[in-house]
Every structure is written in structure tokens, then in C-alpha cells.
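Weekly sync notes, structure subgroup
Attendees: PM, AL, DS (notes)

Item 1: joint prediction request from the bench team. They want all four components modeled as one assembly rather than separately. Inputs as received:
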Amino acid sequence: MLCSIPIVCRVDHAMQLTLKQLRYFVCAGENASVTKAAKAMFVSQPSISSAILHIEEQTGLDLFIRHHAQGLSLTPSGQRFMLKAKQLLEEADNLGKFATSLTESISGSLRFVSLPTFAPIILPSVMRQFRDLYPDVHLHCDEADQEKILAGLLEGRYEFAVTYDLQVPAELEFTPITEFPPYVLLPSDHPLATATAVSIEQLAEHPMILLDWPMSRDYFYSLFLSQGVEPNIAYRANSLAMVRGLVANGLGYALFNTPLASDTSLDGHKIVMLPLTGSPHPTRLGVATLKDVRSTPAANAFIDKLRTQLM
Amino acid sequence: MLCSIPIVCRVDHAMQLTLKQLRYFVCAGENASVTKAAKAMFVSQPSISSAILHIEEQTGLDLFIRHHAQGLSLTPSGQRFMLKAKQLLEEADNLGKFATSLTESISGSLRFVSLPTFAPIILPSVMRQFRDLYPDVHLHCDEADQEKILAGLLEGRYEFAVTYDLQVPAELEFTPITEFPPYVLLPSDHPLATATAVSIEQLAEHPMILLDWPMSRDYFYSLFLSQGVEPNIAYRANSLAMVRGLVANGLGYALFNTPLASDTSLDGHKIVMLPLTGSPHPTRLGVATLKDVRSTPAANAFIDKLRTQLM
DNA sequence: ACTTAAGCATAGGAAAAACCTATTCAGGCT
DNA sequence: AGCCTGAATAGGTTTTTCCTATGCTTAAGT
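Output from the run, pasted for the record:
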């Protein structure tokens, strides 16, 4: 039979002091009296007494010199211990204040995320306005594709996301802010450029420049499919600027939904923007947040600014 | 009948978070799991759960995103709160460590007090030795008369006192270290200077220089009174140096108990030191501490050094 | 699609801690 | 000596903490 080795459960008997006990002790130390401390803390005298005794037992310190019938005074060790205890209590209070500041004040930092499609178009001015109002809040804006955005929200990396309402899972809340109806970008010498509006059917036969991003791709494709036609993809591009350049140089038309301020491509050619007839399904832009998590005041303030900006 | 005004008890509902709750929360946050935290903390899963819920209720924060059947992740607020909570817990641990350091290690600072009569004669060399052994301990030595010494001990201003066992109250513990038998200081041309020892009776008629300090005065007087004679006080002086100067210049003899290393006064005259016959009552030098308060290791170490120095 | 597994929340009762009232005890004060 | 003050103790009650058992919701597996 083997020798059974006794396993010593090493729970590392860390001194167990509660904040309450420390509070009682400090109060007694400052008043040099258990009774006065009891009055100040709105508890009975034995409560203070036993808290002190408990700390003395836990630490092995003699905190007080008991003067019979006339209160207490701190021992030198007690004085030193009280100093540190007060610091700790201070920090504990600060933690509480910090918590309320997180729920109540617009401060600290704010992390959010958006799609690179329109982040640089919409967010800079909102961030500018926000910074002017709340200069102490540190803004951090990431750009990522929809998949990463949703994962980041679920993992708590971002407080909110400015994105489309596409494939948003049930755990997330999507509050729409505005809609972007799709429109056509045409080179100025395109046969359809003189119309006031064009239909999907009209466009189908012409060569198209496709913004080749996961979401855009699916969305614009769906506009044709819902009309029973298929687009004639001549070129694919990976940035808005490139698409505009290709259009401006007459290589085809493109569909867009994010509003563009400029009617000129980077190389100086003019572009014509026309609405689509038949009110095609617009994309909905909004804010995605976690369903069961209250937003911070900073996040709410930012989202408000975003809303007024877009509406 | 007067309107009864309802008194709103404004107890300033300060957020009541316990360290234990914070510990549970942090552990859950670090493990991204209530269950794992429960195992790590050796408590049941609901204990962790309710601690978190309690903090969330108290602070109004949503600390975690609950992923059904696959743990938790911290919200942005939760992340920030956890950082601060960890800091607080760190500080709490430090307080515990500080307490044990007070009881176990020779460190920090050490305040004590002694009588100016012999403090400068005895303590400097002990302090020197102590500093060489424990250079990090800060020594603070006050000088005060017996009355102030005793009050200072009772108020916790000093950890111990090096003094005589005179009028020590019951709350204090006096541990004697050594005895100082009184002896005579004579000018070298004094009629008794050639003897090997002198008696109190012999001295009584000669002019005496009295060290006019409360305790010394009473003590030396008592040596005469116990023999049924009275001293012939010619001069009174307020310092050892002055007494020695007066003696050396032939103005009288003096009684001393603290041992002197030099047989020369400050102005260069020789002094003769002779023992008293009849073994008069010696003064007892020792250490006074509070009776019910354990001394710190630093104090014990110092007192040990003092004892080996004097014995 | 249905079942199983994982994992947090809730319920209810038991154990522990905190608290309160009443009393004791030890020194000062008159 | 007797009263007063103020801390400690005793004993019982309330509050908190903790545990077991169960429910509920989604992911994963078949």
C-alpha cells in the first residue's frame, strides 16, 4: 500500500479585511472613541468595537491603547496603519465615483467602429463637432468590414457601430438613422447622361463598374435581380475613388448609395449623378449596439450628434 | 394641528461595494466566465453570479455581455471598471502586507524618547549600531522630562522610552536594564578628594552643586534624607556640563549617577570621582512601554541593542 | 430538426456574519 | 466609597452570504 501524501490546501490565507471594518476603525481612530465613532456611523457601539477587534486579530497589530473610561488613542503602529487604511478607503470611494461617472457623465474615452465605405465621408465632421463640445473625451474610431464589426460589438470591443442593418444578429440592436437610396454615376458623355432619372432595366445592358466589396456587391446585385435582369459587369474596383475614376473616363456607369459631395473625379473629369426610377430598396444606415447593455452618456451624445448630422 | 413635515433621512447612499464582490467580479472578468471564476475562487457559481449582479445594481453599469452557453465578455464600461477595481484590490493586498510588515519585519520608523540627562550619553552609540544593522529603519529620538515621557507613551506618540523607573503608572511596563549607583564629583583640591570613598554624612556639611532637574533633585535629596541629614546646597545648575564646570572650579561637590567618561571639565580642570559608602539606593534605568501593546520588531531589536550595550 | 451540452440566472433554504440590547468591567472623578 | 464614563462581552435577532437544485437559452452534434 502506498503512502498517502496529505495535500495541504494552500488557500494562502490572505488577510480578510472588509472595507466596512476599516471604515469603522478609521472613524474610531479619528474620534479617539468607539462610542463617538458608533454615533458618527449610525451603528451601535459594539459594532465598532468588534470591527476593531477583528482587524487586530487578523493583522496581529495592537491598534489602540485603551484608556479606561476615557476613550482610545492610536498606538504608533495603529497610526501608521490608519494612514494606509484611509488611503485605501479613499481609493474605494474613487472607484464608486468612477462608476457613477461612467454612467452619468460624458467623459473618458469612446471606442466605436464603422464601415470604410462611408466612415471617412460621414464621421470626421461628427467627430469634429463632438470634440468641440466634449474636448476631454478621447474618441477612437476603427474601420472594419461588417463581420468584424459585429464580432467586435459582441466581444465588447466597441460601444457602438455606425453601419448598415445587414445581417445584424438578434443580440444586437439596430436603430436606423437615415436611408440612402441608390443612384447612378454616369460619365458626362454617356447615352443616358441627359435623362433626369434612369431605370434598372435601362442600365442592365450598359457596361457597369462594380464596387467589389462584400456588402456593396450583394446589395447592388440584388437591385437587378429583383427586377429580373442581370447587370453587365465590365470592371470591378476596390475603392470609391477608383470607381469614380473609371466612370469619369467613360468605362461604364456605377451604382452608389453613399452621397458624394464632389461631381469630379480625382483626375478632373466630370461625373453625372442621376436618381433611379421605381424607388428601389434603399440601404438603411444606423447605429448598432448591444441589446441588453446600456450605452454610456458619451456614446449617446455621439449618436445624437450623428443623427442631427444625417437628418 | 400642524402639518407634519416628513424628514428625509439623507444618509448619502454611498455605493456599498465589498472587496469580496470586486474580487469575484475581476476573477470572472479575467476568465470571461462565471463558472471558471467560481472554481478559481473555490465558491459556487451563483456566488460569483450574484456578486456581479450586485455590483451592476449598485453602480448602474452593465459590466458583462452574456453569451448564452458560452461565457461572458466585458463591456467597454466593464473593462474600464475592472481596471480600476484591480488597482483597488492590489491596494487592499498591499494594506494587508503592510500590516504584517509592521508585526514581522524590522522596517519603517521607530519613535522613542529619553531623558536629556543621559540620552546624549547612552543613545548615540546604540543608534549608530542599530543604523548599521538596519539602515532602512528611520530612528526618531525625542528628549523630554519624565512627565512628558509618560504622557507621550500613553498617547501613543512613542513606542518606548528609555528612562528611570520613577512614577511609572500601572498602564506602563517598566523593564529595568541596569542600575546607576550614585557617586561624588569633587574638585581635585577638595579636602575629601584623597579618600577612596566618602559617606553621605561626610558630604552633608560641604557646599553642594545641585543638578536642578525635577527627578535628579528629588532623587539626590532623598539620599540625604534617608540618612537623617540635609545637604548644603551652594549652587544650582541646569546642565551636566555646568555642574561639572562649577565642581572643577572648586565651588563645591556634586552627586551624579550617570557615568561620565571624561575626568575633565569643559574649561580643562580636573575632577575626581569617588564612590559613596553605605551602598545608597541606586537609580534603575530601563525601558518603559505600554503594558497591553505588543512592541514592533524594530522596537524589540533596538531595546536588545540597548541592553547589550549597557550590560 | 431534434437532442445534448454548456453556462448564466433564479429559488429556497442553511450557514455565517453583522448587528443590537443589555450587561459587565475597569478606571477616573467627586 | 460611590457615581460616571466608556470599552468589552453575552446572547439573541436580523441580514448577508453561500450552497444545492433547477430553469432557461443558445451552440453543437447527430
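Discussion: The domain at 19-104 of chain B is CATH 1.10.10.10 (Arc Repressor Mutant, subunit A).
Action: AL to compare against the crosslinking data before next sync.
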